[in-house]
Design brief:
Length: about 110
C-alpha cells in the first residue's frame, strides 16, 4: 500500500445526442494542452456505460492542487474548454486528493 499526495480532477459531461464522436475527436486533438503541463501526471477520457447515453468522464492527475489551479487559469485551458463547450448539455467537476494508491498484481509497468 503506497501513500500518495496526488490531486485528481474528474469532470462529468453530458454530450448532446449524435455529437459524441465529434466531441471525442475535439477532446483528443486538444489533449496535449494538459499533457504539456509540468504538474500533470496523466489524463483519461472515459465513456459511461451504465447510465444515460452520452455521459463522459475526463480525469486528470496532478502533482498537487496548486499545479492544477495554476493551469486552470491559463489561456490554453480556457481555449480548450471553449472548444468542448458546444458539445455538452451539462457538466460537473469533482476534485480530490488521492490518499492511497493500490495497484493490482495484474497491473504491469
Amino acid at each position: 500500500m503506497a501513500e500518495t499526495t496526488a490531486f485528481r480532477v474528474m469532470l462529468r459531461m453530458q454530450i448532446f445526442p449524435g455529437m459524441e464522436q465529434e466531441f471525442e475527436k475535439v477532446w483528443y486533438a486538444g489533449s496535449d494542452v494538459i499533457g504539456r503541463q509540468a504538474g500533470n501526471l496523466g489524463q483519461w477520457l472515459m465513456r459511461g456505460e451504465d447510465e444515460e447515453e452520452g455521459v463522459y468522464y475526463i480525469m486528470s492527475d496532478w502533482v498537487d492542487e496548486r499545479a492544477f489551479r495554476a493551469f486552470e487559469g491559463t489561456d490554453e485551458h480556457i481555449e480548450h474548454r471553449t472548444q468542448l463547450h458546444p458539445y455538452r448539455s451539462k457538466g460537473s467537476m469533482a476534485t480530490m486528493n488521492i490518499v492511497y494508491a493500490l495497484n493490482s498484481p495484474a497491473v504491469t509497468s
